[in-house]
Amino acid sequence: MQNDFLAGLNLMVVGMGTVFGFLAILVAAMYGVARLVQTYGEPGVGDSSSAADDESEIAAAIAIARAYSGN
Q1: How far is residue 51's CA from residue 23's CA, in Å, rounded to a whole number?
Q2: Distance CA 40, CA 53 (A)
Q3: 39-50 mean pLDDT
Q4: What's 2-29 look like in SS3?
Q5: 35 burial class (0-12, 13-18, 19+ CB within 10 angstroms)?
Q6: Domain count, the chain
Q7: Band of the pLDDT at 31, cuts 50, 70, 90?
Q8: pLDDT score of 47
């Protein structure tokens, strides 16, 4: 009985360690890709100046949709 408990505990620790290791590698890979995109990405993507243009385009699309729907 004691031996089964220790085997289950060992299996749990190995499983949780594997999942934690995989998630740590995944997070590190995401940070690496984000750094690559910031370094070598398309210029102007993610700039705050383009955000204002996006908001005005969204506002225009909403106004057109409201005009056509009658609201």
Answers
A1: 32
A2: 23
A3: 67
A4: HHHHHHHHHHHHHHHHHHHHHHHHHHHH
A5: exposed
A6: 2
A7: very high
A8: 56
CA distance 27 to 32: 9
Give residue 5's pLDDT. 93
Residue 4 and residue 35 in one domain: yes
Which tokens hold the place of 14? 């190995």
**Rounded CA separation 16/37 (Å):** 32
Q: What is the pTM of this model?
A: 0.53
* Signed CA dihedral, 62, 67, 69, 71: sign only: positive
**Does residue 55 sit in the same domain as residue 33?**
no
Helix (H) or strand (E) holding 58, with range, is helix 48-69
How far CA 15 is from CA of 10, 36, 47, in Å, comes to 9, 32, 42
